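Task: sequence design from structure.
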């Protein structure tokens, strides 16, 4: 009977997500709100913030902001360039007041070199990104497109604070090359080495320790069993808590997808507040576009539109899965446009969450009881304040963001627990987020009261189902990633794109 109840509880979690949220609800922040589906270039998909666990880099914090979801490797001839009319930002709050104290701003520029071939005596522009020869270095002669970016650091308010350029530590330059996407093995024979040539040592004004930066296409690091979940929970191998290998019994529907990553590795001392002993920082990423757009009816001038007006935020991401499974459908676009300082408007979604209530409505008779502690102080701690003694700032304004205690030692690959804090590994989610933290399984368990079983904000008696091992069956741990910066795997190539390539991607460099 208990096995049946646990099966029902698990199906309730997945089935409720399928019925109550958007089709891509569990894909972290891939297409998470109605409006952002119209602008994939500025759709933030995942945000990571963790103590670097690369050997010799433990004094650093790695920040990864992923954008442009669901990239098919072979989707040419125009691949997945970033939006030159957008502003991509990573924000750090280092005093707990729900306002950014430090912002890294990224702007992109795309240059068409307009390579021409002589055809029948005439010079004719070629239609391809590569002009006929393989490439291996930044801004190679064989590349018909050059994508570059600049970085500014802003101290204080993101729009009115003090701004300064981040510079290349090698030559003092302010323009950096972004690698072309992984078009295929003929165009870029050694993509791993090509991408590595785009890792830069940089100087951040106001920081005495050089940082590292990489921006480019990567294998999508998120894993989730999407297709079967949303096909009326059509999972062939039931991932019950008593089934063998339950947590890896289903497929990862993002196994064949790439994403674009903005990555920085910054000394922890450069991110915490100057003169403060508080080691906790909060972080989130946003994307903004100009308020107005005027389409050009004759785009052959090279300018298909004119952008103007104030920057308008259209994407926001801190903690994973918040806009997907916490925020109500009517407020998803509002959340994406909001700042942490205004999060009191969303507080009820956390203190009185709908997901556990829906599970109980559907499966309460089978024993799937929702937690009974209201307000849900356990979720307030996880999502809005940080957990006291783990990653809560000395003074804190409740607000949604990813929080990291930079004094918590990094845990080496091989010793990390994919369930983070609830698995006994305090260097993992929700104390920051590492690539190998399985946030889907963690979030499913936390929303049904796992923290209550640990006496964090509530008592075990408050969560009748808090001890169950909820899972979507798509496995993830640190072995899926590289052991050093930029951590995320080499993107899947556009050619060849076979099942063998997809399967090998997890073990590739």
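Answer:
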């Amino acid at each position: 009977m208990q096995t049946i109840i646990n099966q029902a509880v698990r199906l309730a979690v997945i089935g409720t997500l399928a019925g109550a949220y958007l089709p891509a609800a569990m894909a972290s922040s891939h297409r998470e709100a109605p409006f952002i589906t119209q602008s994939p270039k500025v759709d933030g998909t995942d945000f990571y913030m963790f103590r670097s666990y690369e050997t010799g880099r433990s004094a650093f914090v790695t920040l990864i902001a992923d954008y442009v979801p669901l990239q098919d490797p072979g989707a040419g001839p125009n691949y997945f360039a970033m939006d030159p009319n957008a502003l991509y930002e990573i924000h750090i709050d280092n005093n707990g007041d729900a306002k950014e104290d430090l912002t890294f701003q990224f702007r992109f520029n795309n240059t068409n070199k307009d390579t021409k071939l002589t055809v029948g005596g005439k010079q004719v522009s070629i239609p391809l990104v590569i002009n006929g020869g393989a490439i291996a270095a930044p801004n190679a002669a064989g590349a018909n497109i050059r994508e570059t970016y600049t970085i500014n650091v802003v101290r204080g308010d993101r729009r009115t604070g003090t701004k300064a350029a981040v510079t290349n530590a090698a030559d003092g330059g302010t323009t950096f090359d972004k690698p072309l996407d992984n078009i295929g093995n003929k165009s870029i024979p050694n993509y791993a080495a090509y991408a590595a040539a785009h890792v830069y040592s940089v100087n951040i004004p106001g920081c005495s320790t050089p940082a590292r930066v990489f921006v480019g296409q990567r294998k999508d690091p998120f894993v989730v069993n999407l297709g079967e979940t949303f096909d009326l929970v059509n999972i062939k191998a039931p991932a019950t808590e008593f089934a063998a290998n339950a947590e890896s019994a289903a497929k990862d529907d993002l196994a064949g997808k790439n994403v674009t990553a903005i990555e920085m590795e910054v000394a922890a001392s450069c991110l915490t507040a100057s003169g403060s002993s508080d080691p906790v920082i909060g972080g989130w990423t946003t994307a903004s576009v100009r308020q107005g757009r005027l389409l050009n009816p004759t785009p052959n001038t090279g300018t298909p539109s004119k952008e103007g007006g104030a920057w308008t935020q259209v994407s926001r991401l801190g903690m994973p899965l918040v806009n997907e499974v916490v925020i109500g459908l009517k407020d998803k676009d509002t959340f994406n446009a909001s700042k942490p300082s205004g999060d009191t408007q969303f507080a009820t979604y956390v203190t009185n969450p709908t997901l556990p209530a829906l599970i109980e409505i559907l499966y309460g008779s089978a024993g799937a009881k929702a937690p009974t502690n209201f307000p849900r102080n356990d979720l307030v701690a996880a999502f809005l304040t940080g957990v006291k003694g783990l990653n809560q700032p000395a003074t804190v304004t409740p607000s949604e963001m990813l929080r990291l205690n930079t004094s918590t030692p990094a845990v080496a690959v091989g010793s990390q627990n994919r369930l983070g804090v609830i698995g006994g590994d305090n260097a993992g989610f929700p104390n920051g987020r590492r690539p190998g933290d399985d946030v889907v399984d963690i979030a499913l368990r936390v929303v049904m009261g796992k923290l209550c079983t640990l006496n964090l904000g509530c008592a075990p008696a408050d969560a009748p189902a808090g001890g169950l091992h909820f899972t979507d069956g798509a496995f993830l741990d640190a072995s899926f990633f590289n052991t050093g910066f930029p951590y995320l795997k080499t993107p899947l190539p556009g050619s060849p794109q076979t099942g063998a390539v997809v399967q090998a991607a997890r073990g590739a460099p």
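The chain has twelve helices and 16 strands.
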